[in-house]
């Protein structure tokens, strides 16, 4: 482990100094105890033997741009977000290096929204149907968590949206900024006896920073939460998203970036690379307190996604995907001396995938037609036991995963196939409360990640499954120290983690099939690092948050096509990340935020021949709440990348021909107003 940067050490020392210097002040702010549910059994964060971050966004939403999920979670240590500005491929999120290899969307990280999985059974998550405007709380597990959530849980993000409120409200908002970014939104909260209704309608669009990178997204969401009796409630949610276009400007060479960083790749223009989607989801969850010591919870959902896209190749360059997936799960919690939860999850996904030739943007003859299916059954048991200042946690989960391919395009032969991928995952953790303000914790856990249907179907032979792909399996260990609201309003967390992975699934491009993504398994890889985070409320007006992550993400054993990559760094993962956030707020609702972010060096290829230097950005935000009787008007103004630094929004890993670079916007100005009735 390399020596921590002196600036980082200075920042953390200064925060502790500020704490001691404030000891004589009598305006100490007592924060509420943080209670988390992401580890299945509801408990205080102080009792948890896992590295968990939990944040409330009720006030944050007033001045949030609400364009990117990164705006909400980028301050959490160990979390790296890229590709914010390519809406044809979605933001890429990695936690401790897991998820960095995603070709599009989130890969290897589980997303849960209002108790219902947003991640497909095969492990893929898109963000275009996520309602940023109504996020109330986010909990995030930074470690491997397959004993809780099964497939693709090398980190878990759990989102709670607005569903409980005391008074009816209406909120409308309009904001706009650089590159013709704009957002229109209307949110209504209505309470009638024992039922809460939350309604959202929003439109988000932009011309994009680069040529041919615009998008449009219209989102409708209706959430109903009804208290059926004193001990039970039912939640219903319907979501519909329509994105008629999202253009992909493609990756550039460094020479092209130097010539014009805003240009689109010429091949992407010729082949009109883009996507359009229509996505709908209906879900329900039910909870009942059976007795003082026993409770039951369940969920059910069905989702449909129609996708059309074009990639910059002729053969099979037009993709039509009709996806349906559903799931059901239930659990029973026994709240005795040993808290025990027993449960199951069932997921079923079917993809009807068709591909046609892309004749420079025109749809050509059909070359692929196949029906793909992924089914999952997971059963688990989780135990928590507290003994004075000690808390023990254990979990065991067994998953069966079946993958089927029915080839419907028989001109080139029958490529139908079936694959079984099963996994057993235990975890164990121990937490020791050294005082009411601090804890020591350690845990060991295992995880697995199956290839997705998209990765299986990306076969160099053109049809059928790439059945040489295997599930990657991980062993994770971590230990840490946390301080809670101690030393006069200081929260501090330091965690060391170490993970080893077999059969890491990686993307690559083949010179025989340029511009197409394929996947293979690396032999072994290792991830280790240190995460520090702290927050200090100096007084009623000033709050400082800092986070710093440093890590080594290495191929341990990896030989591919005669090349030995053993000892090289895993591409797409920065070796360090730092975030410093200064907030100033007053009693008359003036809010000012200054944020500094630093991203360390990143390699773009397995060979480590292309190194992307570190980047630093500063963002500024100011907002004010104005009250007129029952009316609240909240104007806000933001400047991202204040000094207009050059950096990259995304790095295309192992891209053929050196097309690794997607330049990020320089200075971006954005502002608007939100009106609450």
Classify the secondary structure makeup into a structural class. mainly beta
Biggest β-sheet strands, sense, barrel: 22 strands, antiparallel, barrel
Overall geometric form: globular
* Strand residues, percent: over 45%
Distance from N terminus to C terminus (CA atoms, Å) equals 53 Å
Tell me the total number of β-strands. 42
Q: Give the radius of gyration.
A: 24 Å
Helix content: under 10%
Question: What can you see in these coordinates?
Answer:
With 677 residues, this protein is mainly beta. The chain has a single domain, classed as Beta Barrel (Maltoporin, Chain A), CATH 2.40.170. It is 6% helix and 58% strand. It is built from six helices and 42 strands. The chain has a 22-stranded antiparallel beta barrel. The longest helix has 16 residues, at 6-21. It is globular, with a radius of gyration of 24 Å. The model is unreliable at 16-30 (pLDDT under 50).
Features of the shown structure:
about 675 residues; mainly beta; 22-stranded antiparallel beta barrel; five-stranded mixed beta sheet; about 5% helix; about 60% strand
Explain the layout of strands and helices:
Blueprint: H1 6-21, E1 35-36, E2 43-44, E3 52-56, H2 70-73, E4 79-82, E5 92-95, E6 106-107, E7 110-113, E8 116-117, E9 124-125, E10 135-141, H3 146-149, E11 156-161, E12 169-177, E13 181-192, E14 195-206, E15 215-229, E16 232-247, H4 254-259, H5 266-270, E17 274-291, E18 294-310, E19 318-335, E20 338-359, E21 362-387, E22 390-407, E23 417-435, E24 438-449, H6 453-457, E25 472-486, E26 490-502, E27 505-510, E28 513-521, E29 524-537, E30 542-557, E31 559-560, E32 563-564, E33 576-585, E34 590-599, E35 602-603, E36 611-612, E37 615-624, E38 626-628, E39 631-640, E40 648-651, E41 661-663, E42 668-676
Parallel strand pairs: 7-11
Antiparallel strand pairs: 1-2, 3-10, 4-5, 6-9, 7-8, 10-11, 12-13, 12-42, 13-14, 14-15, 15-16, 16-17, 17-18, 18-19, 19-20, 20-21, 21-22, 22-23, 23-24, 24-25, 25-26, 26-29, 27-28, 29-30, 30-33, 31-32, 33-34, 34-37, 35-36, 37-39, 38-39, 39-42, 40-41
């Amino acid at each position: 482990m390399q020596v921590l940067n002196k600036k980082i050490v200075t920042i953390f020392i200064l925060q502790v100094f500020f704490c001691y210097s404030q000891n004589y002040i009598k305006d100490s702010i007592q924060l509420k105890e943080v209670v988390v549910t992401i580890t299945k059994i509801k408990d205080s964060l102080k009792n948890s033997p896992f590295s968990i971050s939990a944040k409330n966004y009720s006030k944050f939403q007033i001045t949030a741009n609400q364009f990117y999920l990164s705006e909400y979670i980028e301050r959490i240590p160990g979390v790296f977000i890229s590709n914010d500005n390519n809406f044809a491929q979605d933001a890429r999120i990695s936690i401790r290096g897991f998820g960095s290899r995603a070709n599009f969307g989130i890969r290897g990280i589980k997303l849960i929204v209002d108790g219902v999985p947003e991640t497909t059974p095969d492990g893929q998550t898109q963000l275009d149907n996520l309602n940023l405007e109504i996020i109330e709380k986010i909990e995030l597990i930074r470690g491997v968590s397959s004993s809780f959530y099964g497939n693709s849980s090398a980190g878990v993000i759990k989102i709670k949206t607005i569903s409980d409120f005391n008074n009816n409200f209406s909120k409308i908002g309009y904001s706009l900024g650089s590159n013709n970014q704009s957002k229109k939104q209307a949110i209504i909260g209505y309470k009638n006896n024992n039922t809460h209704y939350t309604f959202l309608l929003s439109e988000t669009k932009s011309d994009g920073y680069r040529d041919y990178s615009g998008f449009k997204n219209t989102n409708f969401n209706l959430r109903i939460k009804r208290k059926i009796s004193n001990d039970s409630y039912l939640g219903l949610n319907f979501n519909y998203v329509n994105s008629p276009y999202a253009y992909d400007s493609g990756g550039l060479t460094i020479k092209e970036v130097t010539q014009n960083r805003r240009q689109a790749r010429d091949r992407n223009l010729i082949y009109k690379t883009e996507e359009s989607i229509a996505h709908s989801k209906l879900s329900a969850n039910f909870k009942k307190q059976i007795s003082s010591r026993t409770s039951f919870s369940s969920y059910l959902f069905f989702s449909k996604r129609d996708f059309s896209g074009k990639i910059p190749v002729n053969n099979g360059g037009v993709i039509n995907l009709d996806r349906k997936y559903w799931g059901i799960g239930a659990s029973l919690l026994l709240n005795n001396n040993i808290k025990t939860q027993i449960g199951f999850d069932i997921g079923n996904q079917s993809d009807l995938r068709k591909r046609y030739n892309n004749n420079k943007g025109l749809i050509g003859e059909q070359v692929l037609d196949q029906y793909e299916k992924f089914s999952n059954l997971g059963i688990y048991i989780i135990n928590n036991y507290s003994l004075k200042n000690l808390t023990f946690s254990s979990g065991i989960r067994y998953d069966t995963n079946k993958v089927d391919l029915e080839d419907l395009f028989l001109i080139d032969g029958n490529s139908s196939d079936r694959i079984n991928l099963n996994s057993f995952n235990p975890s164990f953790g121990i937490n020791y409360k050294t005082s009411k303000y601090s804890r020591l914790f350690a845990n060991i856990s295992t995880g697995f990640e199956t290839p997705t249907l998209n990765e299986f179907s990306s076969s160099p032979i053109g049809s059928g499954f790439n059945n040489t792909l295997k599930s990657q399996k991980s062993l994770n260990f971590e230990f840490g120290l946390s301080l809670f609201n101690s030393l006069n309003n200081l929260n501090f967390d330091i965690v060391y983690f170490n993970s080893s992975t077999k059969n890491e699934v990686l993307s690559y491009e083949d010179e025989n099939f340029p511009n197409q993504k394929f996947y293979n398994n690396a032999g072994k890889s290792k991830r280790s690092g240190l995460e520090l985070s702290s927050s200090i409320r100096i007084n009623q007006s000033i709050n400082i948050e800092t986070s710093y992550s440093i890590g080594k993400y290495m191929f341990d054993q990896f030989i591919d096509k005669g090349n030995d990559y053993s000892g090289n760094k895993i591409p797409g993962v920065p070796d360090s990340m730092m975030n410093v956030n200064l907030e100033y707020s007053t009693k008359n609702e003036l809010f000012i935020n200054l944020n500094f972010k630093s991203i360390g060096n990143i390699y773009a290829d397995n060979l480590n021949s292309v190194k992307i230097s570190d980047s630093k950005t500063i963002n500024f935000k100011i907002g004010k709440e104005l009250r007129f009787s029952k009316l609240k008007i909240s104007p806000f103004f933001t400047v991202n990348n204040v000094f207009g630094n050059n950096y990259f929004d995304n790095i295309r890993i192992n891209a053929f021909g050196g097309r690794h670079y997607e330049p990020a916007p320089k200075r971006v100005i954005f502002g608007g107003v939100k009106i609450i009735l």
